[in-house]
Amino acid sequence: MNKISFNYSKLLLPGILLAILVVLATLPLYGSNYSIVLLTSIIMYVILTVSWALFSGSTGYISLATAAFFGVGIYTSAILGRTFTASILANEYFVVFIVIIGGLISACLAFIVGAITLRLRGIYFAIFTFGLVELIKNLLLWYEVKFTGTRGRFVVVIGNETIYYVILGILLLLLLVTYFIRRSRYGLALESIGEHEEAAAHIGINVTMVKVIIFAISAVFVGMTGSIMAMRWTYIDPYISFDPNLTFLPVLMAIFGGTRQMYGPIIGAVVFAYLEEILLTRFPYYYMLIFGIVLAATILYLPNGLVGVVQKIIARLAGGKHAHSRG
Amino acid sequence: MHILEGERVTKYFGGLAAVSEVSFQVDPGEVVGLIGPNGAGKTTLFNLISASLVPNSGVIRFKGKNITGMAPYHICRMGIGRTFQTVKIFPNLSVMENVRIGALFGCGGRISATEATRKAEELLEFVGLPQVSSTPAGSLTFANQKKLEVARALATQPEVLLLDEIMAGLNQTEIGQAMELVNRIRQSGVTIVMIEHVMKAIMNICDRIMVLHHGRKIAEGTPSEIAKSETVIEIYLGEANAAG
Ligand SMILES: Nc1ncnc2c1ncn2[C@@H]1O[C@H](COP(=O)(O)OP(=O)(O)O)[C@@H](O)[C@H]1O
Ligand SMILES: [Mg+2]
What we know:
The complex is a heterodimer of chains A (327) and B (244).
Chain A: H1 3-30, H2 33-59, H3 66-83, H4 86-89, H5 92-117, H6 122-148, E1 153-154, H7 160-183, H8 185-202, H9 207-233, E2 235-236, H10 238-241, H11 245-257, H12 263-279, H13 284-301, H14 305-326
Antiparallel strand pairs in A: 1-2
Chain B: E1 4-13, E2 16-26, E3 31-35, H1 42-49, E4 57-62, E5 65-66, H2 72-78, E6 80-82, H3 95-106, H4 113-127, H5 142-155, E7 160-164, H6 172-187, E8 191-195, H7 199-205, E9 208-213, E10 216-221, H8 223-228, H9 230-243
Parallel strand pairs in B: 3-8, 3-9, 6-7, 7-8
Antiparallel strand pairs in B: 1-2, 1-4, 4-5, 9-10
Helix pairs in contact in B: 3-4, 3-5, 4-5
Adenosine-5'-diphosphate is lined by residues 13, 16, 18, 36, 38-44 of chain B.
């Protein structure tokens, strides 16, 4: 159909990605402190969105548990950070160690939740995963008030640059993992589950296991991101950590970008995270309004998201050329 | 030894016994037809064998091994493939990927990506699908989607293949092709159980026919025996009258 444009984008994409990564990796050398903080925030949304799309985008099981995995990462950081002295935390390897633990605990939680609920139909899964956010938040509130006597916790502060490099590392790892999963037989399995789960099971795919494992893998990155972001926010409590916005925004960003291609969620997250940063503080109401309108329009008119539109245009251009050379 | 057998298999939906105390045996290399009016329980029986559903009672054995209650993917890997009455291809995956994925996951052991591609190409040719395999499966004609589903099931290397009305909705030419395809599948050594309403196909291809009615097996025999059976004629005439 549009084979030409497909091969073309296949070659183009890794090149662009590499260039962007080089720019991002060298940013602290020439960028302002503000640009580092801004990019940290944008990258955070990209990670949450791509992780969400990795599982939910292909299988069609809408997970609303992102905030839960994020919050678990935050609390891992808060608890481990207090256990160890500040001098150890000055060591950057130790920061990475805490982040990895945060990711692993999130993955364990996702594994358990997935094993229990991924046999359910999609809508029950969505409701359950959202319930999980509220459940953990309220459990923590109860625990903090009853046993520690205070609602919040202080997290050890580390430099913005360290946070930036760690979150960039998480992003890189996530993109690599996503790329290889999508290319592998398990990527195909995920898509087939999204299209016809029953048929997938009857051609030998252990659908429950594939779903649970990919769900757990996607949670690793969300938990890691929570762990590192906690060190930027310095003070956290259950409300900040289990913020439902962190569940819904990635879903909306992924839908806006389009989930059929890997770069759809990336573009969706970058656009909206950037808009949020520049608009939210100045025009909070306009921001939410614009956000809402753009999303409604996307869902109504662009079933394949922003990337779908771009592909259509490329296909039309390529098709036009093709027709021309034939004629 | 029977390759596939059921012992007093029963499935209720609420108070309705969709399949009731059905016992059956299928021998290696056979083509067995499963017929009966709409709602007789034929598809439900396939769902029980392939583990889409779990029977309320009864036992299903494959090569002597009790497979009741196993997971569908496990049953498939053991060697039972199936198609669906309502076509369930993966419409947004390419034709090629639809078959490749069967090869990648359906066999007991691991198979390399290139091997899967080669096998998929082979099977696309076998079922007579055009080699334009990069098109999305959803854009195929109905008849070709049915062929694709057969190819996908074959890619899992089944020893027993369950075909659920693969000829329904096809025109005369396409039915001829489908009959020829079933014959070639049997020649490749696969045992077949087929649900079909196209009598010409059933009578020509099958070694043996089982008749279900209201969830019960009411007759069994060679095509000529079934054609002569009073009860079977009565049921089908009764249905034809009701329909007319
Ligand atoms: N999943 C289901 N839930 C409830 N009833 C069902 C289900 N599947 C089939 N039935 C009922 O079981 C009976 C047998 O259906 P089915 O096996 O599809 O018949 P056939 O394939 O012979 O036409 C019908 O009365 C049908 O309505
Ligand atoms: Mg049926």
